[in-house]
Amino acid sequence: MYEFLQPGTVLKRRYKVIKVIGGGGMGAVYLTDDTQTSAPVASAGGGGLRVAIKEMRTDTDDPEDARQNLVFFQREGDLLSTLDNPNLPHVTDYFVEGERHYLVMDLIPGESLEKKLERLDGKPMPEAEALGYAIQVSDVLQYLHTQKPPIIFRDIKPANIMVMPSGQVKLIDFGIARTYKGATQRHDTVAMGTAAYAPYEQFGKGQTDARSDIYSLAATLVHLLTGKPPIPATTPTQASLKALNSRISLPTIRLLIRAMDRNMDKRPSTAKEFSDELRKALGKPFVAPTSPPPPTPERPAALQSVFLPPQAASTPISKPGPPISQPVGQSVFINPPAAPAQSVFINPTPATQAAPERPPFAPPAGRLCPRCGHTNKPDARFCGSCGLTLAGDVSARLIVLGSEGAVMFEQTLPTTLQRYTIGRRSPSRNIYPDLDLTYMDPRAYVSRQHAEIRREEGAYSVVDLDSENGTYINETRLRPNVAYTLHNGDILRVGRVQLRFSLAV
Q1: Contact by Cβ (8 Å): 52, 69
Q2: Is the pLDDT of residue 306 over 80?
Q3: Per-domain residue ranges for the chain?
Q4: What CA–CA distances, in Å, run from 94 to 5, 275, 318?
């Protein structure tokens, strides 16, 4: 089982670990003191400069995943060590200890846009604030897209945009960024990115380019302005945006619809063009906020040669495959920093029951009430038990809970989708569940294909897909491969992640 480094651990006889600030199944991010670089103000526990250290482990039971993840870890260091932009973090060191690889980076104070959205709790962000963040991101995208060769980020989303106290943004996590291969390559080898913000072509439908990043930034802006994540690979309409936030201005709506068009040729052709249009929508001059640069150790000229010792540079981790140092432009994923480990998973006492008392799922004989679960006549307009109106279709949501029941995020289940998978992604196996709990599961208790929500005749059920750590309803374990009816308010436990099932008309 993967264990985080303990506070007080010293890496490279230099970096003293203070605490974990993010974690996932393949690594972690630590707050550390660089004891060999003086800080302007002595920090608690020492006078060193505070830095972030990103860790990638390779001691895993999936050698192919480890090989690919390390390739992307290397790519992130390679890219950031050669880039110089105020809206990007700096990489200052790379080293290997034991089975783990480490990148030393600027510590970025502040919070991600994802955290800001969580605090808003489904409410829209003020338009001027959201446009200001989008302008800054579009400007740094223009910088990336004009590199030689161009760098396509391919994972613009709220979690990868940090906002510093001054309001300046930093674009983080370059694990799946790629250099553009040109028009001769018509498709990316593997779909990647985060579904709600990824454009149509990123789902294996074509070749990503600068316009793909523009779509993802526009999708992120939709989330900021409406409080709801966009539907994957779709173009919003004026009516749908106004329904979620009637105060969005018409110029912004028109720009979002254009930037999220399924046809790439209809989107703004460059990030600069998108930035100019965002400024017009803002309707007033925009001056990007700045922050004083942090003191940092001298950066190496390049880090490409230090990721593996020369004798190991052409040696695969376990089984045959491309050498670690070989550039891979179309593969998949680095495990990015997630929410802090101490707030994203529960540690319940496993239930001992073999199966729930409720009987296996059977299609309802009538219309289910989403409030009380009573079965009414098929043409009933009101629930005969609690009186709830039954007009309209029944929709369902999965609400992901953190420690002490805190709502982390929620996902609406499409009414047209008959089966909805829950698990952890595995790019090497081409597994991308509908609800990806990778970031919520730092110790990998959730199986890659863990459970499945099914919809039949307006009713919902859950099936455990023979997972290793089980699926529970209200702390009672389900038998594998058997469907059980879900009722409004049921608490599911998938591995060690809790979900609340919610119905509404």
Answers
A1: no
A2: no
A3: 10-107+317-342, 111-282, 346-504
A4: 17, 34, 22
Architecture per CATH, 346-504: Sandwich (2.60)
Lowest-confidence region among 29-43, 145-159, 175-189, 237-251: 175-189
CA–CA separation, 317 vs 384, rounded Å?
Answer: 63
Kindly list the distances between the CA atom of residue 20 and the CA atoms of 5, 219, 341, in Å, as whole numbers in the listed order: 8, 30, 7
User: Is residue 492 predicted with pLDDT exceeding 90?
Assistant: yes
Q: What is the CATH superfamily name and number for domain 10-107+317-342?
A: Phosphorylase Kinase; domain 1 (3.30.200.20)
Q: Residue 499's pLDDT band (boundaries 50, 70, 90)? A: very high
Whether the CB-CB separation of 459 and 489 falls below 8 Å is answered with no
Looking at the chain, the number of H-run helices and the number of E-run strands are 7, 24
Coil, helix or strand for 483? strand
Per-residue CA distances from 373 to 67, 367, 458, 463, 505 (Å): 48, 9, 12, 19, 12
Tokens 């981790």 belong to 317
Largest Cα–Cα distance in the chain? 75
Q: How far apart are CA 149 and CA 183, in angstroms?
A: 13
**What are the backbone angles phi and psi of residue 343, rounded to the nearest 5°?**
-120, 5
Q: Which CATH superfamily is domain 111-282 in?
A: Transferase(Phosphotransferase) domain 1 (1.10.510.10)
Give CA–CA dist 208/267, Å, rounded: 13
Single out the residue of 394, 355, 327 nearest to residue 473, CA to CA.
Answer: 355
Coil, helix or strand at residue 24? strand
Position 418, amino acid: Q
Closest CA to 454 of 443, 465, 445: 465
Place of tokens 């060590």: 81
| Gap between the Cα atoms of 128 and 225, Å rounded | 10
Q: Which residues contact 7 (CB under 8 A, 6 or more apart)?
A: 17, 18, 19
